[in-house]
Amino acid sequence: MSKSTHDTVMLNNGVQMPWLGLGVWKTKEGQEVENAVKAAIKAGYRSIDTAAVYGNEVGVGKAIKDSGIAREDLFITTKVWNADQGYDSTLAAFEESRQKLGIDYVDLYLIHWPVKEKYKETWKALEKLYRDGLVRAIGVSNFQVHHLEDILADCTVKPMVNQVEFHPYLTQKELLAFCKEKQIQLEAWSPLMQGAVVNDETIQTLAKKYQKTPAQIVLRWDLQHGVVTIPKSIKEHRIIENADIFDFELAPEDMDQIDQLNKNHRFGPDPDNFDF
């Protein structure tokens, strides 16, 4: 089991991806995102997750450049937005993201949402970027089992990652099992239920038992399920705290207790009923 923020999981193409990363959704471009990324890197994080639609790729790029950490030791993820999906438009969107980030290659490029009639063409563009060596790994975000089956039916490169909403109120058992079977790494966005995790009584009780914070309990639960996680924070003490999850292990019965909190409750949009 993972021992530090530098620990990685091997994706289905042999690329190593850190188990823990910093998400920068809703983090403002400029000083706010630069400070968050620098604090994360200083705290030992090596994975940063952004997206074109977040509007903060320039700040992420500046922070990684200023961090003093070698580019090859970092793992940078970005995503193609819905309006840019399609073959040529995805290639153009990727180039724009790459320029904003100021990097030669992206470690992981994802399709942000499964836009009907478009995501298969978009996937072909990702396959080209992968073959051309501009991205080290490609994947999807917010894809349900049926979307993945659709891609797998005729892709030439299998998705390496599926980043979805995943937390104790939305445990996505079927999707997790499917991804494990197909060797697609599941990654959790909104792992802390947009902050609501601190109010759950079961989680609070476990936090007392392990002398950890509610956030640390849930992030540890992710890890023990073999799910990569990218909690978002702009506060340095929280960024450090969120990484302090490698020195304890949840007992199987406590893992089960958390699993049983599932309500199939989404804080974010439903990929099958999303206004693309």
UniProtKB/TrEMBL annotation:
Site (Lowers pKa of active site Tyr) location in chain: 79
Pfam families, alphabetized: Aldo_ket_red
Gene Ontology molecular function terms on file: oxidoreductase activity, acting on the CH-OH group of donors, NAD or NADP as acceptor
Residue span, NADP-dependent oxidoreductase domain: 20-262
Keywords tagged on the record: NADP, Oxidoreductase
PROSITE patterns: ALDOKETO_REDUCTASE_1, ALDOKETO_REDUCTASE_2, ALDOKETO_REDUCTASE_3
Protein name: Aldo/keto reductase
